[in-house]
Amino acid sequence: MNWIKEFKAFAIKGNVIELSVAVVIGAAFSSIINSLVSDIITPLILTPAIEAAGVADIDKLSWGAVKYGKSLAAIIQFVLISLVLFAIIKAINKVNLVEVPTEETKKDPQVELLTEIRDLLKK
Fold first, then answer.
1. How many other C-beta atoms are found inside a 10 Å radius of the C-beta of residue 72?
2. Are 70 and 59 in contact (CB under 8 A)?
């Protein structure tokens, strides 16, 4: 009985709920990033390279018996996914750093005046 109460308290905590929401959103976001990379960015980069190699498909790229096409595509997609995620996270962090002053963060006019006087006296 005690175990059930502990589990209920654990499952209802905000952190667990936030984590579960993050996992679901992450899964949906993953499909967006994968589609962006595999359907848009990778073809833009690989199509000229494939045409230059004279091959119709990247999977058919080979060097003798070594078929490196799929591995090359996987490496390129990994790098592109990493770059896209880095750019998105960097943009989100930049937006989060801009803090809009609220009523709580605005200083009292008297405090501002005293701070200016203090700074002038230091000079």
1. 15
2. yes
Where is pLDDT greater, at 112 or 58?
112
- Helix-strand-coil percent breakdown of the chain, rounded to 5? 80, 5, 20
- Contact between 73 and 42 (Cβ < 8 Å): yes
Residue 62, SS3 per DSSP: strand
Tell me the whole-structure pTM to 2 decimals. Answer: 0.43
Q: Where are the alpha helices (DSSP H) in 1-123?
A: 2-12, 14-35, 42-53, 69-97, 109-122
What per-residue confidence (pLDDT) applies to 55?
67
Distance CA 38, CA 34 (A): 6
Residues in CB range of 60: below 8 A, 6 or more apart: 67, 69
Classify domain 2-122 at the CATH topology level. 1.10.1200
Identity at 8, one-letter amino acid code: K
Q: Which two tokens stand for residue 56?
A: 């119709």
Helix (H) or strand (E) holding 67: strand 66-67
| Half-sphere exposure in the Cβ direction for 10 (13 Å, CA) | 6
